[in-house]
Specification:
By secondary structure, this protein is an alpha+beta fold. It has 2 domains: 2-153, no CATH class; 157-229. The protein is built from 6 helices and 10 strands; from the N terminus they run H-E-H-H-E-E-E-E-E-E-E-E-E-H-H-H. Strands 3, 4, 5, 6, 7, 8, 9 and 10 form an 8-stranded mixed beta sheet that branches. Helix 1 runs parallel beside helix 4 (154-171). The longest helix has 25 residues, at 184-208. The protein is globular. The model is unreliable at 107-120 (pLDDT under 50).
């Protein structure tokens, strides 16, 4: 718990919101995860730290600590389950922690209990059985429910987000160059520092979730970020 408290402090205590203990007590979550939600909570700002630049889209993670609810209480479409990664979960144990939406859309248009799925691509879920964090598409894709694991635990998820926030903030400190003027020395200096920063990012992500990093969501995302670093 102490290390997770440090994550909140390093992130910025005022950027976190905790769930109401009475609200989450009936949910099928492990006692440790209930305690984390009620004490540490979830980051709700700054927006830049919760915006991910994926390969074909940019998404905003909108945590809803005051709207935590069972997946079955949403308007998710019903269908057979298609998994990208991870062991087959029991969706009845899924608890929704928030939504992941198009970063260019107004995230304020949703409500805690009734999200317009046309503005939402995925539900952010915590599996009460395995403790894994999942992204799940609430609308059927090719007639199936698509979901994939993001982290192996709630704590690992928070640590991975902090690693991403730090990486994005330090990116701003890389040496700038004039795009209109070719300078081989400046470009070489940028590339060297960018690669060092990215290697540190990879190491921090693996340390955040040793069980789920290799071949997982965050490793793939880190290499998407590497492309952006050098574009």
């Amino acid at each position: 718990m102490d290390s997770l408290s440090e994550i909140r402090q390093q992130w910025g205590d005022s950027d976190f919101q905790s769930a109401d203990r009475a609200q989450i007590e009936p949910l099928p979550l492990a006692a440790a995860d209930k305690t984390l939600l009620a004490t540490i909570g979830l980051p709700v700002s700054p927006r830049a730290a919760l915006t991910l630049y994926l390969r074909f889209e940019n998404v905003f993670i909108h945590h809803q600590p005051h709207g935590v609810r069972l997946l079955k209480d949403t308007d998710m479409e019903k269908g057979p389950l298609h998994l990208s990664t991870g062991s087959r979960p029991n969706l009845h144990s899924f608890v929704v922690l928030g939504i992941v939406i198009d970063a260019d859309k107004d995230e304020q248009q949703d409500s805690a209990a009734h999200t317009p799925y046309e503005a939402s691509r995925r539900l952010l879920c915590l599996d009460g059985v395995s403790g894994h964090i999942w992204w799940l598409h609430p609308e059927l894709c090719q007639g199936e429910i698509w979901c994939h694991t993001v982290n192996s635990s709630f704590g690992a998820y928070l640590a991975s987000l902090l690693a991403y926030k730090s990486f994005r903030e330090r990116w701003k400190d890389l040496p700038a160059s004039d795009p209109m003027e070719y300078d081989a020395q400046a470009m070489a200096a940028y590339d060297a520092q960018a690669d060092a920063l990215h290697q540190e990012f990879l190491a921090n992500l693996e340390a955040a979730d040793p069980a789920g990093f290799k071949g997982g969501f965050w490793e793939e995302h880190a290499w998407n970020e590497h492309i952006l670093l050098h574009s």
